[in-house]
Each structure stands twice: as C-alpha cells, then as structure tokens.
Amino acid sequence: MSTRRRNRSFRATDNPVVRAIKDLILERGLQSGDLLPSEAELTEILDVSRASVREAIKVLSTLDIVEVRQGLGTFVSNMSLQPMVQSLIFRGALTPNGGLMAFGDIVELRAKIDAGYAGEVVKKLAGNYSVPLHRIVAEMEESARTGRPFLQADREFHLTIAKVANNLLLVQLIDAFWDIEDVVYPKLPPRTSKELMQTATQHRLILEAAESGDTAQYRHLLRDHYRPLLESLPHPNYFVSEATQD
Prior knowledge:
Layout lengths: L2 H11 L2 H12 L11 H8 L3 H13 L3 E4 L3 E4 L5 H12 L6 H17 L1 H8 L5 H15 L5 H14 L3 H17 L8 H19 L3 H18 L14
Antiparallel strand pairs: 1-2
Helix pairs in contact: 3-4, 5-10, 6-10, 6-12, 8-9, 8-11, 9-10, 11-12
Keywords: DNA-binding, Transcription, Transcription regulation
Organism: Mobiluncus mulieris
Protein name: FadR family transcriptional regulator
C-alpha cells in the first residue's frame, strides 16, 4: 500500500461523519444490538449527503463499531477486538517463521497479563470449589488420555479465569489472543500424549493453587505452564525466567 493510501485510510477514521455517528451512539445511550437510525434519517440528522453516511458506516463497520444486517438495518456491534486480531494475524504472516516469532510476543504478553492478575484471581477463588473450571480440567485430562489436543478446553479455562477478575476488556483481550492461537496452532509441532497430559495436569495444579489461596504457587505454576511453549517459539529477546515475573 502506498503512503498516500495509508494516509487516506488513517483519515477515514477521523472523518467528521464517522465522529458524528459515534457521538450520536453515545448521546442516545445506544448499546450493543441497538438499532441505529436509517441511512436516510442519519442524512437528515447530520445534515450530510447519503454518500457521506454510507462511507462512514463502512468505516465504522470495519472497526466493528456497527454491524450492517442486510434488510434489517445498522446496529451497534458488540465491539469485539476482531480488527486488532486480523491486524495481528496479518502482521504475523509478514514476519519470518510464518508468524511464529510474532506469536511468541503474544504468548509472552499473555503470560505477563496472567501473572499480573494472579492476586485478583486467587483472592476470588480462594476457599471455593469452581465447578466450571474443574469440569474443564477433567475434559482436558480425558482428551490427553486418548492423545487428543484440547485447544478449545484450554481456551475455555483461561477465559473462565479471566472472567473471575471481573474485567470485560481482559476477557475480550484473552479471547482475541486465542483467536490468533487458533490460526498459529497448526504450524506448531504436534504434542505427544505425555505432553498433553503434562499440560492438563498443570491446569489442575494452577486451579488448586488458586483455590487454596496460594498466590506465589499460582504464579510459579503459571511460569511452568508457559515455559515449554515459549521455549519452542523463535523469540530472540525473550528470557524464560523473566516471562511471567511481576
């Protein structure tokens, strides 16, 4: 893409009609799933051309701020992090090693985020027995016994842990990281049954440390959990011993 086209793309997000529609969403208190005024109504409300409204809607749709449903209208989106996900996936595709180096950056960031929220998670889980998390771990162990990967259960475990911290952005961010991992995972070496069982066991130990209220052990187990994956990825600036320190 030429510099001129990149600049035009940046200017699109700063378009006054784009800003006006975002302001309208805020002023009216519209939430995810709410219907926006029609294209004709927006043209009248904002006193701009229909072409300007149409272009602004395209920009907002690309940013996942609105969702256009054919024959139904334009709705406020759930505003996921999908634009960021797609950008990171493409960024990874442009890097050496088929994106594995960029994926190493993401895994390292995930490890640090998990460590950063360790105290909050342990505080919430201490003294409790989380039925959903134990169910997920049991599913992992069953899959490992038969030599089957359990990427979805792994994702569900970390998302459930993130929800414990009661931070919506954290949940969306972890979910976005897993979207990227879904793309990269097939490029990683196949896991042996022994490795799968070790990973499942690590999840059980992490959960038990949280439920016992042992934050130090929880962080230590997180480091052990991420270390094998990070060591298998090309990451020239990474030092395992520092990956998940506070």
